[in-house]
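Weekly puzzle thread! Below is a chain. First person to post its structure in token form gets bragging rights.
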Amino acid sequence: MKISLITVCFNAEATIERTLKSVLDQTYNDIEYIIIDGASRDKTVQIAESWSDRFAEKGIDYKIFSEPDRGIYDAMNKGISKATGELVGIINADDWYEKDCVEVVASEYEKSPFDLSFADIRMHMNGGKTFIKKARYRKYLTSRDWNHPTQFVRREIYEKYRYRCRNISDDMELYFRVRMAGYRIHVIHKTLANFQMGGVSSRIPVTEIPERIGRRYQIYRENGCSRFYFFECAAFEIIKYLASKF
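Winning reply:
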């Protein structure tokens, strides 16, 4: 079973090699790897191109595209449009997979096919400390236990649901829409990826916190949640802001 992996990037010369290496080192080989670059002005594309021979030696179908985009989720949508695998995973250029990530996902899918899966993730704080953010599926709708870098989605589902390119919470919004539509959600209780705090989704100026709370709350309300979710949204963004300072 072919699995497509997508990395979107822009001016990521300082971090992209770690992401590339994590894909090259996968214990599962039937991989299509797509780089979607937003017309970087640094050496991101040159670095990505320098890895082409190594991916070819391992039999990984490696493709690089570089052109301006309308932001991170527009780039993700472009990658999804080019993907041909049965499952699609997206790992940004600040983050990286565990070596057995794709093998574990493929094994879980073969045992019990799903439409969307996610797993535990290791969070790397700016000071060097790490902690595991556990994945969990609760009866009530929440994003607290969902981890986008570990998410794998059937390509057929992505053909129905794309990122709306509205704001930085588009990834959560897509997960909510898929879940609320009744598709099969599967949680893998294993650490499959690493998230480097300080990237675009976790750089939070204090002045933006009210707006971020409002955007998150709007998504909950659009998916039928009560007004009480405002308090969860506020707590989530405040905790995320405080964590970004360590």
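Puzzle host: Confirmed. Bonus trivia for everyone else. The domain at 3-198 is CATH 3.90.550.10 (Spore Coat Polysaccharide Biosynthesis Protein SpsA; Chain A).
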